[in-house]
Amino acid sequence: MPSARETELLEAAYRYVLTHGLADVSLRPLAAAIGSSTRVLLYLFGSKEGLVRALLARARADELALLGDIGTGPGVVARLWDWLSAPAHRPLLTLWLEAYARSLVEPDGPWAGFARATVADWLEVLKAGQPEEVRETAAGLVSRTRELAVLRGALLDLLATGDGERVTAALRASLSP
């Protein structure tokens, strides 16, 4: 169980990386920005990698909590897109994208398994939107994978361009029967 100080510093560091990114975070500037020292951060998290792992777990918990509010049944993909395209979620999604990409090119260390875990998380959310008789079938998995690919592609485009209207129209058209 983390101490109150560890939780406080993790939350402050999380707010910092939502604004400044995580890949090139340096302990000294981070510690100064959150009112701590590198010595305290190393004591609480063991290493910079330990802190990065804790921040990734914190980001994933935030993402899963938000995804948990999407609900089940028809319309899950549209509700997911509404959530993804909300400007308030851009910092979390940019951090997610950074961690996702980093886990692909640096599969060891604190990034290990992040991309694979998020694919599984999102497929589960999409599964909840399918009719029960389809959920455990190969066709259901193919459909979820297609929806996930379209959502992720649209998200990349949205984060790169900020053109929500165009991207939303394309996403809705691609998911139409």
Question: Can you give a write-up of this model?
Answer:
This protein has 177 residues and is mainly α. Helix 9 (138-161) runs antiparallel to helix 10 (164-175). It is 75% helix and 0% strand. The chain has a single domain, classed as Tetracycline Repressor, domain 2 (Orthogonal Bundle), CATH 1.10.357.10. It is built from ten helices and no strands. This is Transcriptional regulator, TetR family. Residues 26-45 bind DNA. Keywords: DNA-binding, Transcription, Transcription regulation. GO terms for molecular function: DNA-binding transcription factor activity; transcription cis-regulatory region binding.
Per-chain topology:
Layout: H1 4-20, H2 27-33, H3 38-45, H4 48-68, H5 76-84, H6 90-105, H7 114-127, H8 132-135, H9 138-161, H10 164-175
Helix pairs in contact: 1-4, 3-4, 4-6, 4-7, 7-9, 9-10
Keywords: DNA-binding, Transcription, Transcription regulation
Pfam family, one: TetR_N
Protein name: Transcriptional regulator, TetR family
- Approximately what portion of the residues adopt beta-strand conformation? under 5%
* Assigned CATH class: Mainly Alpha
Looking at this structure, what is the CATH superfamily? Tetracycline Repressor, domain 2
* Rounded average pLDDT: 90
Which geometry do the CA atoms define? elongated
CA radius of gyration is 18 Å
Largest sheet: none
How many individual β-strands? Answer: 0
The CATH topology, please? Tetracycline Repressor, domain 2
Q: How many domains, in number, for the residues?
A: 1
Quaternary structure classification: single chain
Determine the N-to-C terminus distance. 48 Å
**Low-confidence segments, ≥5 residues, pLDDT <50?**
none
